[in-house]
Structures
1.
Amino acid sequence: MEILWFLFAVIMIGAVLGPVLLRRRGGIRQVAPGSPDAADPANYGFLRQEELDIRMPGPDADLLEVLDLVQRTQEWKAASQLLAGTETHGERRWQRVQAFAGAASLELQQRPGGVSDNPGGQWLRVWRAETPKDAGGAAVHAEFLVQQAWRTAAQGTDEFRIILEEAKEACAQAALLSPGDPVPYIIELSIARGLAYPREEFEQLWLKILDRAPAHMGAHLAALHYWCEKWHGSRDLAYGFAEAAAARAPRGSLLAALPLFGVYEHLPEVNLVRGFYESEVVTKAVEGALFAVHSARADDPMLAHVRHLLVFFLVRSQRWSEAMNQLVHVDGHVGALPWTLSEDPASDYAVYRALAVAGYEANGGSPATLPH
């Protein structure tokens, strides 16, 4: 269905795809919005593009409540309490640390100000100043510095290195405050990538994480970047790392999906070739991710990350029904790969969602036939 990919390319150039795709068995073509033949994502209960939450990959009601409170009142105590009550070795603590750090970083970007101007993220500085031995605050501060380096400084510059060196020291302090906690070392993985740790030093850091949380999916995703071709490894090293992790994954672990992330990190520059997404390497990685999703706990905090990447690959592979099965689980939140790499994550996600709906209906699907 080359016409579908022609349409996709046109859309990605700049058009925003709404409910404008005609349902027709065996083909898809563009029609006017509001046409009775249009494939409308709203028919499936999907949220409108402007209602999509770009902050997180999936719901975390407690985190959202505390984030809103902290940003509204500029009081940090609720954030500290939430992290103190979150399991140290779990995926959710890592995600919450990232969320708080990201919120402070974005606030500072929006309101740089001065000392007397109440700059954004002031609540994090007060948190660290008032409770310097709070392990949660120390971890959030370390992650905040990492995000500041990658967001505000050009890679390879003195400014970039100085901020990451400061973040490295903050990670060491956070680790001392919470022995056995993998999060400070997971934060350091991004520092290792930015400062180009030698492989021996990186592997020593990785062993500290394996000692504390050997099946931590978030840690594996962060480490995978280091081994990628565009950083300090190669395609073979990245695939080897991902496949080894998948092979030793315990039952119910999402690590079986790691090879799909490795494939994504090494997509060719021009990847609209029809056969690529039906190739053995892609098909094997997709099947591994589907297996991981089916066997994982329904409340696994990393499950939404895998589902979002599956939507991308399943749509590209024209596996419409399977893409729809993932969409019904993640719609509403788009703070995950691949959407977060876009300047407008909600728009990119909406494009793929509309294509999935159109392909599904073009092949006989309907809201009545889609399981929830």
Note: Confidence is low (pLDDT under 50) at residues 1-34.
2.
Amino acid sequence: MEADSRPPFRVMLRMEVHPGRQQEFERTWLQVATGIAREPANRGQKLVRSVDDEHVYYVFTDWADESSFRTFELSEAHVENRRRLQPFRRGGEMVVTETVHDLPPAPAAGTGTAAGPRTAAQDGADRPGPGPAVGEPLAFIGLGNMGGGMAHRLLAAGRTLTVHNRTAAKAAPLAEAGATVAASPAEAAKGHSVVLLSLADEAAVEEVLFGQVAEVLAPGAVVVDTSTVSPAYARECAQRLDRLGLRRVEACVVGNPFQAREGKLRVYTSGEKSDLARVGDILDTLGAQVVHLGAPGTAATLKLIFNLLLGAQVASLAEAVAYGVAAGLDRDRLLASVAESGFSSVVLRFRAELMRKASYEPAFFRSTLMEKDLRLALGDAAVAGVPLPVLDSVRERFADVNAAGDGDKDASVLLEHTVRDGGAKAES
């Protein structure tokens, strides 16, 4: 057999799982494996349980070549995979193998050359291709940066999709990719059992969901809402939909539009587990990680906490750079130094690059949305009796950005306002 005709590079992992945790392990492995399957060099995976010992599993993972596997093995994504699986493991070892011979099973009677020539239809069935649509048809409403990315991801995964966006032009790329474009939210959602929302704020959710969509959905339909709203409103939505005989899955996503399109978001969910199970395949398609947090409102709380941290980092970086520039440091060198330092983070590096290039349009996260999310978080924290004075000042800074007309620019534009405001005060 020629070397280049052999099956791909294979990794075999033997895993011993703690007693009583097999089902949890199997569910988690499936989620992890779904993410690995998106790696371009991955050629397939298989989970096998020993018939002699129900606590022993074998994982077989095929790769295009060894270098591809080694690169993935050191990636942040695989570090996260190991972290998720570690609670279930009590032992095991990994073996790297190379297939020398791989004989397929003999053709079944009536197929292949033994039974005569194959038809064109049979040959075509063996060829890789897009295949049939996967699962039930979906509706997706709200095609902004994140919503559009998620919709593209679902189409790429073979889902049948009807979409709508208030600005019709944003639906055009999805139409070219195979989606059906509806003229209104009601038209998009009519008769569907699952609808996904990615809307800007509570007012938009109220208008779209309760003004048009809820009344036309199929009985018992699930609304997967990725919009960022307050925890109180999230709980209210779940209750109102329940009274209408509908279900709500809170699915707060963390990441950027590129990750949305690649299915590499982190998805934090809340709601009834039975509802989550109904849309689990959809969530796994959208996210490299899907984490269930509990009752309605809990995912919204965590999403707002993330955005509090994002706003604080952007504001502190803007102030630090404004100080450095005023003190005579080169702006580009300063931003590069911060991004390369131990004080940096993935978020800080990304925003530092936007600031270095003064690249604020199109926005990855608009300043208007940043101020809105900070305001929601501050309001919810006040109800809980927790004052957030530092983050309140950050919210005021973004409110100033919006008032100055830069609300549609990326939140990183705060740097320009901070530098300008500092210079103006210095001159006065």
Note: The longest helix spans residues 298-326.
